[in-house]
Automatic annotation (TrEMBL):
Residues 1-23 form the signal peptide. Residues 127-387 form the FAD dependent oxidoreductase domain. This is D-amino-acid oxidase. PROSITE patterns: DAO. Belongs to the DAMOX/DASOX family. It comes from the Bacteria. It is an enzyme of class 1 (oxidoreductase). It comes from Acetobacter sacchari.
Length: 425
C-alpha cells in the first residue's frame, strides 16, 4: 500500500469556505458524512454556540472490560449509487432497491418511495418484497401505504440483518457512490431520496421510547480545525482502471444540497469547552435506535396486514414460484451472490457496544473514533482505523469481530474521558 501519494488536502473547518472543504471529505476530518461543520446554504457564516448552552455532561464510562458486544457489518457499496432499475424476469417485474453503502438507514424511506413508484406503474394489487433489512422493511411499508397487499420474503428478519450492525445516524452520503461512475444525474436522485427520508423520519420523533431522536454530537480535536491533513491511496489508478476505488477523493458527496434543512455545527468557545481538548464543535444529529424503531416498523407492517415468509433465494429463476407478479428486490450486499451483481463492493465496518448509560445524552467524535449514547448501549466505532478516510474497509469482506480494533477504539474514548473534569462538564 502506498501512502501519501494521492493528494494532500486542506480541510478548513473554520468559516464558510471550511464548510465546503469539509463536506468534500468529512470522514477523514472526523465528522459524519452529513456534517459540513459550518455554514448553511443561505450563506450565513459559522456561528459560535451561545454561552451557557453546553449542559452539564455526564462522562462516558469507556473501558475495555465493559464491552458486551462487537458487531461487524459490510456496507453494500455500488460505485454508481444504489440500484433502482427495473428488470423483467419471465412474467415478473423486478424493481431493484439495493446498494446503499453507508447510507441505507438514512436514505431508506426515499429509496423506498422511488422503488414503490416504479412498482406501481404495473398497477399491481399485491407486491412481494425480498429482504427485511431497513431497505426492505421501509419498501414494504411504503407499498402498504400506497394500498398494496405486501408479503416480505426473507432469509432473516430485521434483528438478524446487517442493517442492525450499523451505527444508526443520519449519514445520507456516506460511501453512497463514486463521483465519476455515478455521473452528475445521481445528485438529483440522491437529493430526492434524502429529502423524502428526512421528512419521513420526522414522523417518528417524540414517540415513546424515542425510536428516532436527536443527540448533540461533540466534534473534538487537539489541533485547530483546518489543519492540513494528508489522504492516502491504496495503490495506483482509480475505479475506472482497477474496478476498485483507490482514494477517498473518488467518493461523491452531496450533503451541501440539503444544508437548508440539516442543523449546522457550531463552534464552542474555549471558555465554554468542557472537554480536555483545545477545539470543539457541536452539532445536532438524528439517530436511529435500532431496537425500538425496528420493533415499531415491524408492528406497523403486521397491523396493516403484512405477511412474512422466511425463505432464501438462490437464483433469479427462483422467483417463478412466487404468486406476486411485481417484486421489490432488497437483499443488500447479498445481491452480489443471489443476483450475481458484481458491481457491489463490501465495505467493512465494526462497532463495539458497552452497557447503556442513560444519563449520557450525547455523542463525541475524537481521533477517528465516535462514541454515541443510544437506548440499547454506548456504541463506539473506529471509523478511520486505517487512516485512509472513506477508503477504510473498502473491499474488505472479513465479517468477523476484530477484538483489538474494538479495544483500541474504546481506549481512545476512555483516554479522552480519563482527562475530563466533571467540574467543567
Ligand atoms: C459499520 C457500519 C455503520 C453504518 N452506519 C450507518 C449509519 O449510521 N447510517 C446509515 O444510514 N447507514 C449506515 N450503514 C449502512 C447501512 O447499514 C446499510 O446501507 C443498510 O443496512 C443496508 O440495508 P439493506 O436492507 O439494503 O441490507 P441488509 O440489512 O443486508 O438486508 C438484506 C435483507 O435481505 C435478506 N436476504 C439477503 N439475501 C437473501 C436471499 N438470497 N434470499 C432471501 N433473503 C435474502 C436478508 O436476510 C435481509 O433481510 C452502516 C454500515 C456499516 C457497516
Amino acid at each position: 500500500m502506498r501512502r501519501r501519494d494521492v493528494f494532500a488536502g486542506s480541510l478548513a473547518l473554520g468559516g464558510l469556505a471550511a464548510g465546503r472543504a469539509l463536506a468534500s471529505d468529512p470522514i477523514a476530518a472526523g465528522l459524519p458524512a452529513s456534517s459540513a461543520g459550518g455554514a448553511k446554504a443561505t450563506g450565513e457564516s459559522e456561528r459560535t454556540a451561545l454561552p451557557g448552552t453546553i449542559p452539564p455532561l455526564v462522562p462516558i464510562r469507556a473501558h475495555v472490560d465493559q464491552i458486551v458486544d462487537i458487531k461487524v457489518c459490510l456496507r453494500p457499496f455500488r460505485p454508481m449509487g444504489p440500484r433502482l432499475d427495473v428488470e423483467r424476469i419471465g412474467d415478473k417485474l423486478v424493481v431493484h432497491n439495493y446498494g446503499h453503502g453507508g447510507s441505507g438507514w438514512s436514505l431508506s424511506w426515499g429509496s423506498a418511495e422511488i422503488a414503490v413508484g416504479k412498482a406501481l406503474t404495473a398497477l399491481p394489487r399485491q407486491v412481494a418484497v425480498i429482504g427485511c433489512g431497513i431497505v426492505g422493511l421501509t419498501s414494504a411499508l411504503v407499498a402498504q401505504r400506497a394500498g398494496l397487499d405486501v408479503t416480505i420474503y426473507t432469509k432473516d428478519m430485521l434483528p438478524h440483518t446487517r442493517s442492525v450492525r450499523a451505527n444508526g445516524s443520519w449519514t445520507p452520503d456516506s460511501r453512497i457512490a463514486l463521483t465519476t461512475p455515478a455521473g452528475p444525474e445521481f445528485g438529483d436522485l440522491w437529493e430526492r431520496m434524502a429529502r423524502y427520508s428526512w421528512k419521513s423520519y420526522r414522523d417518528y420523533l417524540g414517540l415513546p421510547g424515542n425510536p428516532i431522536e436527536f443527540r448533540d454530537s461533540y466534534i473534538l480535536s487537539d489541533k485547530p480545525f483546518g489543519s492540513t491533513q494528508e489522504f492516502a491511496s491504496t495503490g495506483p489508478g482509480d475505479y475506472a482502471s482497477n474496478g476498485m476505488p483507490r482514494s477517498a477523493s473518488e467518493f461523491a458527496h452531496y450533503s451541501d444540497r440539503i444544508r437548508d434543512v440539516i442543523p449546522a455545527a457550531e463552534v464552542i468557545a474555549a471558555h465554554d469547552n468542557p472537554f480536555p481538548v483545545a477545539y470543539a464543535k457541536r452539532e445536532a444529529v438524528m439517530i436511529f435506535n435500532f431496537g425500538g424503531y425496528g420493533h415499531l416498523l415491524l408492528s406497523e407492517f403486521y397491523q396493516a396486514g403484512g405477511k412474512v415468509v422466511i425463505r432464501e433465494f438462490h437464483a433469479p429463476s427462483d422467483l417463478k414460484g412466487l404468486k406476486e407478479k411485481v417484486i421489490i428486490n432488497c437483499p443488500g450486499l447479498a445481491a452480489r451472490d443471489w443476483w450475481s451483481d458484481k458491481t457491489l463492493i463490501p465495505v467493512r465496518g465494526q462497532t463495539a457496544w458497552l452497557p447503556p448509560q442513560p444519563d449520557v445524552k450525547y455523542g463525541v467524535r475524537y481521533n477517528g473514533v465516535s462514541a454515541l449514547s443510544k437506548s440499547d448501549g454506548i456504541l463506539i466505532q473506529g471509523f478511520n482505523a486505517s487512516g485512509l478516510g472513506e477508503m477504510d474497509g473498502v473491499g474488505n469482506s472479513f465479517e468477523h469481530a476484530d477484538r483489538m480494533e474494538a479495544e483500541n477504539a474504546v481506549t481512545t474514548i476512555g483516554g479522552l474521558f480519563s482527562r475530563f473534569s466533571p467540574r467543567r462538564g
